[in-house]
Every structure is written in structure tokens, then in C-alpha cells.
Design a protein that fits this description.
By secondary structure, the protein is mainly alpha-helical. Helix content is 74%, strand content 0%. The longest helix is centred in the middle third of the chain and has 41 residues. The protein is rod-shaped and about 110 Å long.
Length: 191
């Protein structure tokens, strides 16, 4: 309806002579309306693509991190639209997109928290192994010391950073005690 009114006004304006056109005080309004319609028409396909991308997403509560790329793609496509063309995207679609972006952020935060908890638990398990070593190390503790070292070496750098320096020093002292007492049999710096 608005486009029909703008088209009718444009047709009427274009049928005027140049002298008559010069007398039209609000010709700028018509030009702005034509520009707006042209921008909306040009952006309709992109807006429809955003609507389709969002519609293809699972319901927000069913989203997983596997959906992150699709959510990011839909959000990027929406963000690329001009403010005017964004008005072609219905409110329910925008609401679902915003909720999907929020949900993915929550899932990522949860995943990071779980990863941090796993790191903490693994570091604690190694600390427990090392703490279980006796103060006086004998040959019968060689396997326990080797297992503690292997467990420590298997940690990621982030997990190793969670093991206290005192605990690492205890492990190194146990290894040193074995090396001093029983020697470095094969010369590789290990017992």
C-alpha cells in the first residue's frame, strides 16, 4: 500500500514539467520514500535468508554446541542487515535468534566450567598420589614414585599449573632419594 502511494506520487511528479517540479516543496520526501523502498526491496532477499536460517535452528532449549556455527552464521547475517532492512525480520525471529545466541554462550560457559573442574580433579588425583608417598623412600616405593611421575607427566600444562609447587618438590625429592640410594641404572637421569 505504501509502495503504491509512492509509485503514484512518483508518476505524478515525473509527469510535471521542470518548472512545476521546482514548485513542489516536499519533493525530498518523495525521493526519501523511493530510496527507502529501493533499500527494502534490495534487502528483502537477505532478510528472508536470515529468517530461514533462524527458522532452521532447533528450539532454543534443544540447542547444543554442535549448533554454534549455525547460530553464529544466522547472527552474522542478521548483523549485516541495515537497520531499515532489519525491520523486515519479524520480532519472533529476532527473539529466537537473541535467545539462541545467549544459549550458546551459556553452553560454552558450562563447558568451560566442566573443563576447569576436570582439570582440578585430575590435578588433585596426582597430588593425592604424590602425597601418599612416604617421607622415607625405599626401593619398595620405586613403582609408586614412577606411577606418581607418570601421572604428573600425563597432565596438561594447565593441569600441572594446578599442582602445588610443594607437591612437585615432594615428587622430585622422592625421585632424587631413589637415585641417590639406588642409582641411575641406565644413565638416563631416571631411576
Amino acid at each position: 500500500a505504501d509502495q503504491d502511494a509512492v509509485d503514484a506520487a512518483a508518476t505524478a511528479f515525473n509527469s510535471l514539467t521542470d518548472a512545476q517540479k521546482a514548485l513542489v516543496a516536499n519533493a525530498g520526501v518523495l525521493e526519501a520514500a523511493i530510496d527507502t523502498i529501493e533499500e527494502l526491496e534490495a534487502g528483502k532477499e537477505a532478510a528472508d535468508a536470515v529468517i530461514a536460517k533462524v527458522a532452521a535452528l532447533p528450539q532454543v532449549e534443544a540447542l547444543t554446541l554442535d549448533d554454534e556455527a549455525a547460530v553464529n552464521e544466522a547472527k552474522a547475517a542478521y548483523d549485516e542487515l541495515s537497520d531499515l532492512v532489519k525491520t523486515l525480520v519479524d520480532e519472533a525471529t529476532v527473539t529466537k535468534l537473541d535467545a539462541a545466541v545467549t544459549r550458546i554462550a551459556e553452553l560454552k560457559a558450562d563447558q568451560e566450567a566442566v573443563g576447569a573442574k576436570i582439570d582440578t580433579l585430575k590435578a588433585q588425583a596426582v597430588e593425592d598420589l604424590i602425597n601418599a608417598l612416604p617421607e622415607t623412600i625405599t626401593q619398595e616405593h620405586k613403582t609408586d614414585v614412577e606411577e606418581a611421575r607418570s601421572a604428573y607427566d600425563a597432565l596438561t600444562d594447565a593441569q600441572k599449573a594446578l599442582v602445588s609447587e610443594d607437591i612437585v618438590a615432594k615428587l622430585e625429592a622422592a625421585e632424587k632419594a631413589l637415585a641417590i640410594t639406588y642409582g641411575d641404572v641406565n644413565g638416563d637421569g631416571k631411576i
